[in-house]
Amino acid sequence: MKTEQQGKVILPILFLGYIAIYIDKLVIGVIAVPLAEQLHLSIDEKSYIFSAFFIGYSIMQIPFGYLNDKLGSKFVLIISLSIITVASIVFGSASTLIALVAARFFAGIGHAGYPTSSARTVTDTYPMEKRTWAQSILISTSGIASIIGPLLIPIIIAQFGWRGAVFCIAFIFVLALILVIWKLPNTHKEKQKTAQKSDTPATPFLKVLTNPVVILLFIAMCSINIALYTVANWMPTYFVDERGVSLVTSSIIVAIAGLGSLLGSFGTAFIVGRYFQHREKRVIFVLAVISAVAAILVYRTENIAGATFWLFLSYLCSVMIFSTMFTLPLKRLHESIVGTGVGIINTGATLGGVFAPMLVANLVGKFGTYESVFTAIAVVSIITAVFVGLMPNMKKDRLGA
């Protein structure tokens, strides 16, 4: 009963923090436009700001995961949100490139702690059969933020400037931080007492790193994120440059595809979470095949409306794959190493975002069209399903169980 009561409090708090996290990720590109105009930044200088975030994000995934297992998710959530809040305030006050780059670097560090600590909190709070539902609800914030952010932030920028928009996002982080400190229970202490009674030795980091579930999900997450980041970041360019549609029309097409993110995460929560418990590998395989075929049909379909539908379907299935995979560590790894394991796996997901633009640039540069890009999306979708399919069965792979 106590866990059920905690769950009713915990999920809304984590949900609010995730909304702020994804808005901050998704709208930095929008904010960068007036920022660059005001501070006279070149394209290269803007890229430094973007890259600094992902560098900070990448290097701290594993350390924060380890701290979750050692010090507890509430502690890491407080540290994470505190760093992001300070970094946002500094970014909104900055007037030099060095300050902007440094602020986004530390924002990336703060962001790195949130997914791992949230996953750890879900594991500590919810029973096995509810973890897919809870984690998918949290991931659905990506779709919500992709709708709310682009609609609201330009309005705020028009009224208060880009600095005002940054401070508004910082305010959401402050509110989430207060709620975490005030309302989020410290489940780590209870887990520590249980661990002390059982005298179970701590799992060495190398053993977590070489765990087959961690390795396979690391590769699978990298693969599916290549598909997701390619669709999210490059489709506007594709439809404008190769299909000849206007930027407005292209934005509408991508927004419709982005709706797949929201529906995909909710679909994972209510379909996979309720009806396909412990059959996730089969679900991912079917979704990967659909996503791969739909990606190819985006390019093959001459009608723009048809291409939009196939893009939506491909993105929907890819998000469902991502959401389903993100819940697997919560069910397939022993509770004592979930934080570290998720940190390692999330590093793979981050690398997918790093590799995606390089892959697209090389393929388009070599072949001159986006046909190879859509083929690559199909290939990485199938690769994802293959590596998930290689995971050991449920009873054999719960490390330490």
TrEMBL record:
The family database entries (CDD domains) matched by this protein are listed as: MFS_ExuT_GudP_like
Its subcellular locations are:
Cell membrane
Q: Name one GO cellular component term.
A: plasma membrane
Keyword presence, Transport: yes
- Segments crossing the lipid bilayer: 12-36, 48-68, 75-91, 97-116, 137-158, 164-184, 205-232, 252-276, 283-301, 307-330, 337-360, 372-391
Instruction: Note the superkingdom of the native organism.
Output: Bacteria
Against InterPro entries, the record matches this protein to: MFS, MFS_dom, MFS_Na/Anion_cotransporter, MFS_trans_sf
Q: What is this protein called?
A: Major facilitator superfamily (MFS) profile domain-containing protein
Is Cytoplasm tagged as a keyword?
Answer: no
Give the way it sits in the membrane. Multi-pass membrane protein
GO function terms (MF aspect): transmembrane transporter activity
Report domain Major facilitator superfamily (MFS) profile positions: 10-396
Q: State the species of origin.
A: Listeria booriae
Q: Which Pfam families match?
A: MFS_1
Where does it primarily localize?
A: membrane
Question: What keywords were assigned to this record?
Answer: Membrane, Transmembrane, Transmembrane helix, Transport
Kindly give the SUPFAM superfamilies that the UniProt entry links to this protein.
Answer: MFS general substrate transporter (SSF103473)
